[in-house]
Amino acid sequence: MDLCQGMCYVHVEFTARSINRIREQYPDAPVVAHPECTYAVRMLADEVCSTEKMVTFCKESPAHELIVVTEAGLLHRLRKRDPTQDIHSRPDGELFLWGMPVHENEYAGKAYDALSKMEPEIVLPEPLRKRAEAPILRMLELSR
């Protein structure tokens, strides 16, 4: 029996080649990577840290441009926090959601539009919202 060692589909999308390519475009930008990225990507990063530490790193960094190697939700959060700081993630600007380029996934594109434009408003039935909120609150609690 072959057992999967496990991986995060978002973080394995980043490769050493893609990091080298984006560094060519933004040579002065520090690279901040999530620990779930591949070993090769982590070795190319200037800083490897948890999601919350990434937020702190970007907030405290004097750099105007940063390369942040993680999922799209955090990129949105960082850009919203400080619109004057240029946050890059991919050399070609292509955004991935749910393991696929947005342009190849109709639902990912709709989710991206909703997050970037903050519309249309998505309203969940309260029982479903409460069930979805529980694991998020637990993750935040564990991250402190």
Could you explain the architecture of this structure?
It is a single chain. With 144 residues, the chain is α/β, with parallel strands linked by helices. Helices cover 46% and strands 12% of the residues. The strands form 2 sheets. A 4-stranded parallel β-sheet has the order 2-1-3-4, with helices on both faces. The protein starts with 15 loop residues before the first helix and ends with a helix. The mean pLDDT is 81.
Characterize this entry briefly.
The protein is an alpha/beta fold and 144 residues long.
Q: Any low-confidence stretches, pLDDT <50, length ≥5?
A: none
The string of secondary-structure elements, in order, is HEHEHEHEEEHH
What best-fitting shape do the alpha-carbon axes yield? globular
Based on DSSP secondary structure assignment, what is the total number of beta strands?
6
* Measured distance between first and last alpha carbons: 38 Å
* Main beta sheet: 4 strands, parallel
Strand order of the largest sheet: 2-1-3-4
Q: Which structural class matches the secondary elements?
A: alpha/beta
Strand content: 5-15%
DSSP summary: helix tally: 6
Helicity, as a percent range: 40-55%
Q: Provide mean pLDDT, rounded.
A: 81
Rounded Rg: 16 Å
